[in-house]
# Entry
Amino acid sequence: MNSPSPSRFFTQGHAARVSAALAALGVMLGAFGAHALREVLEKSPRGPDNWRTAVLYHLLHAAVMLWIAGAKEQANRLAWWLMLGGILLFSGSLYPLSTVGWKWLGPVTPLGGLLLIGGWIALAVKPWAEPRE
# Structure
């Protein structure tokens, strides 16, 4: 059985569902960090700040991904994929760095940041306008 290619996966429905689920996960992680993980995060001097940064970037980019998914003609799939990778690497590395202190994830965070920046650049280069015919 062949796995779907990224372009076949990127239908409005699939991309919107993934984006919305990612946003819901961001809200849950924000609440989890503010309540259940408070003591764990406070053991590290940068734990609470890193967690808040991870949640902020996670939610912001998930919202933009949802907007991209709903844009007419889905003109910028590249930006969507870059932001997905950026959330996974940037926020996905900051969450365990903040809680369990896995220092080996430190170099992953800036790579995720570069992907997020790339997503914004992709939007600037190929905006959401309708494609020319």
Remarks:
- The mean pLDDT is 86.
- The CA atoms of residues 75 and 128 lie 5 Å apart.
